[in-house]
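Ticket reopened. Same input as before:
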Amino acid sequence: MSSTIDISTLGMIAAYALLLIPLAMLLWQGVSIVSRVGIAVVRMTVQLLFVGLYLQFVFNLDNAWLNCAWLLIMILVADVSILRHCRLRVRCFGQPLFVALVMGTAIPVLYFTMLILHRPHILEARYLIPIGGMILGNCLRADIIGIRHFYDTIKRDHRTFELTLAQGAQLHEAIRPYLREAFHNAVSPTIATMMTIGLVSLPGMMTGVILGGQPPVTAIKYQVAIMIAVFTGTAIAVPCAILMSLKRGFSPSGPLRRDVFAD
Amino acid sequence: MTDAILQISDLVVQLGGKHILDSFSLEVGTGEQVLVTAPSGTGKSTLLRCVLGFLSPQSGTIALQGKPIDELSIWSLRLRMSYVAQEPVLGDGSVSEVLARPFDYRANRDLRQNLDRVPGLLTQLRLSQDIADQQMDSLSGGEKQRIALIAALLLDRPLLLLDEISASLDKDSREAVFTTLAALPEQSILAVGHHADALPKADRIEPLPLGGVVSGRNE
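Engineering reply: fixed in the latest deploy. New output:
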């Protein structure tokens, strides 16, 4: 198979020109988000341009420490983003969530490069960063669902939760049904994706590998492996994040601390 | 009082800058049934939340069977008390599931045989035996209140904390509840309510004073 065809400048102009169709549809229907679309397209271009330039630099250098540092920065950004979406205070949960995200990303990505791809250098930029990024992105989505569900449900059901404590439950016993439900909700989208993958849409990684010039069978193998790695990452990150946050989320005598919520 | 099960001394609680309890003191003797009365919003539920360790007072002490309640001791001291909330929210599931749930906790596993007392307690509290199969969300407020009382009694704790227990009960149900409680001479009770009829067979009824001191038996 041939390698990926580069997109010429004219081709990129044609790509942006395709935006005229959705913009025309929005104007026709009077949906007043045209300026937001413009900002989003500009942001996307600038952000990807910077990331592309940086990644080119990182790939060329291919230094293990720099690769790890890049992944850690991505995890830090995800950490803050998750807590903002969950409306929880970063100063309370930032550190335990960061550790959980490192575990949820590092374990599957290292397993992937070592035991699935058998790479001689497990911290090779070409594999570590894109695969780590895909796993982290899914951990982010799952953590937002799981952590938010866990704390919001206990906040809503605080009387039931406190009655459970009053009945003699230890903290780990009192949180168990909430943790179970949060975990279930967090991994459900990944399971649903696995159920419909290939039927509803061609997944991004598979498309990328095919565009990269590899046969579809290779693309399928990559996709299966990455889906299992993503599922593993979310299954590690969500319960670890919740369990590691308990000490800061609950008072020593058991009730949920109200000052952990940002609003 | 030497046989006090609960000793509350100089309790001060402020919430949102407002004095809820101000130097409040109270002793409940072993086997004594005490009712603390006060109008709404004057700290009755707050008092029980402090005893349960859900709220830390600004100052003052609470001791259960001579052991001071603090953030660490509360975990073992909660095993000496049970609690019925004003509007009990016992969780999802059927009545039998809700009553059995506390016995899944490690601290209560040895008490699981107490579930054998459920049919008798249902009868005593004028509830149908069929209610055990009903879902909690299908029950009336009064039924939930009595199920919550059964859940508390099954745990066999020395101190029972009752928050406005008769608020949603009709006359017959109230009579059944108070007769059941009066038939437990060993059971220490600290109840809170608006009026004396919140626990008519109480050994002692004390108003909740702002900054006052309540102690000793009125016998």
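The interface with chain A takes residues 52-54, 56, 71-72, 74-75, 78-79, 81-83, 85, 87-91, 101-102, 104-108, 151, 155 of chain B (CB under 8 Å). The radius of gyration of chain B is 17 Å. Please confirm and we'll close it.
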